Amino acid sequence: MRTYEVSRIDAARAVPLTGAVGGTVWERANVARLDEYAWGDDPGPETTVRALYDTEALSLQFHVEDGEITADVTELNGPTFEDSSVELFATPAPPDDGSTARYFNFEANCCGAFKLAWQEPNWRERDVGRDLVTPTDAAAVEVETSVPGPTKTASPDDDSWWLAARLPLSTLRSLTGLPIELDSGTVWRGNFYRSGLPDAQKGTWNRIDLPEPTYHSPEFFGRIEFE
């Protein structure tokens, strides 16, 4: 199981939602590499993520190599995983006994459209519902990308894109019904994913040892520690 430490910043210092790292607070963030290609023989295109937190929000910055950048989904909570996209799945209150718990998934495409849901473990197999973020709560989520929207068709010039997002804890509290707070010593379980690619090129941060891509697999979540 991999461990990622999220660096803390002063809440008074705004985290820029940009792809720049040098000369910004993103220099303080650790880098997680989505370099587990469980369904291919060769490494796929590189994807990295940085994360920072303050008392009000979790901020993410993805850098993505991509030779075919595409996006069709524009609606909130649409199937963004079908587009060039990146994802964070996380359990903000992991059980002490190691069992799986409900988790949220944030899935954003290269143009900034996103889904944010609160899932039951194995919700597909158990045929249970899931909660989707409301438009009101979603309005507080900030997403910026290097790809002008609202949609994107592939181009011969495609080679990379970035996405930066700010997830307010108030939105996560409303979605999950949990009193989520972030402080030194907080521990989540979770995983980062890359979607919108052939299976052989799909990368994950923590490896998923299953015969085919099944991102809704909290049993393979890594450890996310807050500084």
Summarize the entry for a quick read.
Residues 27-226 form the Carbohydrate-binding domain. By secondary structure, the protein is mainly beta. 7% of the residues lie in helices and 33% in strands.
Characterize the structure shown.
With 227 residues, the protein is mostly beta strands. The chain has one domain (3-10, 20-226): Immunoglobulin-like (Sandwich). It is built from three helices and twelve strands. The chain has helices spanning 123-126, 135-138, 169-176; strands at 3-8, 31-33, 47-53, 57-65, 85-91, 103-109, 114-119, 131-132, 142-145, 160-168, 187-195, 222-226. The longest helix has 8 residues, at 169-176. The mean pLDDT is 93. One of its GO terms (molecular function) is carbohydrate binding.
- CATH class bucket: Mainly Beta
Strand content: 25-35%
Number of structural domains: 1
* Span of the ends, CA to CA: 18 Å
Mean pLDDT across every amino acid position: 93
Name some characteristics of this structure.
227 residues, mainly beta, Immunoglobulin-like, twelve-stranded mixed β-sheet, 12 strands, 7% helix, globular, carbohydrate binding, Carb-bd_dom_fam9, hydrolase activity, hydrolyzing O-glycosyl compounds, Carbohydrate-binding domain-containing protein
Topology:
Elements: E1 3-8, E2 31-33, E3 47-53, E4 57-65, E5 85-91, E6 103-109, E7 114-119, H1 123-126, E8 131-132, H2 135-138, E9 142-145, E10 160-168, H3 169-176, E11 187-195, E12 222-226
Parallel strand pairs: 1-3, 1-12
Antiparallel strand pairs: 2-3, 3-4, 4-10, 5-6, 5-11, 6-7, 7-8, 9-10, 11-12
